[in-house]
Amino acid sequence: MNPVSPAPRPQAEYLGPQSPLRLSRYHPDDRRRRQLPVLLDLRGARERRRRERRAERSLGRRLRGEPPPGVEAWA
Asked: d(Cα 44, Cα 38) in Å, to the nearest integer?
């Protein structure tokens, strides 16, 4: 056995699929590496929700015959 090999990592309890601490909460480099995709995914979901809400608002305006935001009157 290699005397320099690191000790086996203890397994953390499973904290759910959305948890950034999915597999290891002991090794900070692991934690950081696992957090990045989670944070990017959260940001993407927030932007997607914002786009959908904006689309719904503009659709409501269109259905009422109002101009889109930023346009005073239809050309």
From this structure: 10
Token pair listed for 32: 């950081």
Q: How far is CA 15 from the centre of its chain?
A: 17
Asked if 67 contacts 74 with a C-beta cutoff of 8 angstroms, the reply is yes
Calpha distance 6→52 (Å, rounded): 48
pLDDT tens by residue, the chain, 75 residues? 556 666 665 555 555 555 555 544 555 555 555 555 666 666 777 888 888 888 887 777 778 888 777 777 665
Place of tokens 């997607």: 48
Q: Are 61 and 68 in contact (CB under 8 A)?
A: yes
Measure the CA–CA gap between 21 and 14, rounded to whole angstroms: 8
